[in-house]
Amino acid sequence: MPVFDYLERNARVYPNDIALVEVNPAKQPQSGTTWREFNLIETAHSSEQYRRTITWRQFEQDANRFANLLFTRNIKKGEKVAILLMNCLEWLPIYFGIIKTGAIVVPMNFRYTADEIRYCADLADVKMLVFGPEFIGRVNEAKESLPLVTDFFYVGKPSETPEYATNYEEVLSHCSAECPPVAITDDDFGAIYFSSGTTGFPKAILHRHRALTCSAQTEQAHHLQKKDDVFLCIPPLYHTGAKMHWFGSLYSGSRAVLLRGVSPEWVLETASQERASIVWLLVPWAQDILDAIDSGKVDVSKYDLSNWRLMHIGAQPVPRSLIKRWKEHFPKHDYDTNYGLSESIGPGCVHLGIENIDKVGAIGKAGYLWETKIVNDQFEEVKPGEVGELAVKGPGVMDSYYKNPEATAEIRRGEWLLTGDMAKTDEEGFIYLVDRKKDVIITGGENTYPVEIEDFLHTNEKIKDVAVIGLPDPRLGEISAAVIELKEGMSATEDEIRDFCQTLPKYKRPRVFIFAPVPRNATGKIEKPRLRALYGASNLIEEQILG
Questions:
Q1: Claim to verify: residue 429 and residue 464 sit in the same structural domain
Q2: Which of 393, 416, 436 is the last residue of a domain?
Q3: Sheet-wide strand order for 255-259
Q4: CATH number of residue 542's parent domain
Q5: Is residue 287 domain-resident?
Q6: Measuring CA to CA, which residue among 125, 117, 161, 160 is closest to residue 141?
Q7: How, if at all, do strands 334-341 and 346-351 pair?
């Protein structure tokens, strides 16, 4: 069944229940006005509102209206429609409107430059682009180099609509709210997602409808969403992680809150006011919340978090020390981690499980509907405890890299997908990430896995974040360098951190220490190619670091 069948069911069974809430912290209520009172004096347009809502019936109707609008613009089954929006109430109805036509939805990273918009639109053969006010300048710059794009839809104030675009709000109400009569099967293509680009230009990842449905079923099986749950969604919806976690709310017909912006105060305030029961965080956000509490900047007792039952993290390795700190502050929270990649339709192909809190540090075992194994370069399964590459198999595995059969052949082995992540299992079968295959550092013939060193350094109470990269060395081939971001108000010397590392085996000890911010992308992954380019680009830089 296509995933939009769940939407149609919810609109039929729960028509007047709230499906989505959008909270925009930048538009704070007036001083002295309570959260609920402010809802009664909201202004007319989303950019001016603090809180907006949409019911399941409205959600379904808006999706149908947009689907029928696409038909008037000659969007046919199999054609590509791109979304370039910040998280907002319109995002998901637009997404579902596209896939209801049989067209292929193409979510775009909100950080893309004009050149990246051009590149990805051309790569995916995009015919229509839906964009918001934050992207007017970039789309203006890119549009002349988008010969395949025949229509632009603008989601924003009608008065600010560029002359080449059609205003979404103005035309949508004139379209039929009836479900479009298009036959769509699990085997039809449904979406193109782009790889994060941390190893070069993004690749276009083509998925069938069965993968989208798989993600909804897997997510609900893992986190047991029920009708009365409230999911606080903070990460960007263009990414498979945020959307596929929200698919658990879709599956269960429960409410979700889209938070436009992130800070410790905003997360805690929104969780409190909206009675959130499930919150998915990235590592930096969880660290920021804990640091704000520990420093006294945030008084957690001011918030009613009694409904919050589950905190889970995905998208990057999770330091054990972080979860230990979290449980000290929030002992009643269940914790889970989900592993996945866009090529496996996002999170859930490997899953720790809330019952396995004693296994924090592992990413878990094969998720619901999935299989896993760890293999060597000959695709032979390795023994427990041996390091190999993690491979996954399930209905969420991508069809292909669109228009790139060579890259597809590199990671597909029949029904199996090679993840590019090096891992090992313990005696109970729990999987532990060791590192990205391309990030392994070979020092004097010894394989050094940065994640192991990063996990160790995270136990230092002065360190907020850390990234370990390889730098070229004429004698050893490569040496490890640790880029260290200290907690606010903390100070440390290179000698102090070097002494801290003495308990590590000698070949694992970083040779270089760089005190600097650790850059992460919008989904929380460390941007190691950027760090290697910054600190390994020339001998002069290396001499400055060492000197």
A1: no
A2: 436
A3: 51-55, 18-23, 255-259, 230-233, 278-281, 310-314, 334-341, 346-351, 365-366
A4: 3.30.300.30
A5: no
A6: 117
A7: antiparallel
The boundaries of the domain holding residue 317 are 310-436
Given 436, 471, 504, the domain boundary residue is: 436
Check whether residue 361 and residue 398 sit in a common domain. yes
d(CA 351, CA 353): 6
**CATH for 352:** 2.30.38.10
- Same structural domain for residues 469 and 422? no
Which helix (H) or strand (E) element contains residue 402? none
DSSP labels for 41-98?
Answer: T--SSGGG-SEEEEEHHHHHHHHHHHHHHHHHTT--TT-EEEEE--S-TTHHHHHHHH
Do 325 and 446 lie in one domain? The reply is no
Beta bridge partners of 233: 258
pTM above 0.70, yes or no: yes
**What is the token pair recorded at 210?**
């069965």
* Tens digit of pLDDT at every position of the chain (547 positions): 899 999 999 999 999 999 999 999 887 765 444 444 434 333 334 445 789 999 999 999 999 999 999 999 999 999 999 999 999 999 999 999 999 999 999 999 998 889 989 999 999 999 999 999 999 999 999 999 998 999 999 999 999 999 999 999 999 989 999 999 899 999 999 999 998 654 457 899 999 999 999 999 999 999 999 999 999 999 899 988 888 999 999 999 999 999 998 899 999 999 999 999 999 998 888 989 999 999 999 999 999 999 999 999 875 667 788 899 999 999 999 999 998 889 999 888 999 999 998 998 899 999 999 999 999 999 999 999 999 999 999 999 999 999 999 999 999 999 999 998 889 999 999 999 886 777 778 675 566 778 888 888 999 989 999 999 888 876 666 788 999 999 988 999 999 999 999 988 787 889 999 999 998 876 677 888 788 888 874 433 343 333 3
